[in-house]
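Quick note —
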Amino acid sequence: MADLLHIRVGKKLKEEMNKLIDSGLFSNQAELTREAVRDLILKYNNELKKKK
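Predicted structure written out below.
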């Protein structure tokens, strides 16, 4: 069973997300959110490695 994460975003951020979806870059909000979270995790993991 997968653990789920519920994320709430404000109206302005949701509008910006929908612009990216409407442009064809992402197919839906879930895909956009997964990619964003994945990229942030990789970014901060790299930052932690640099500090060691």
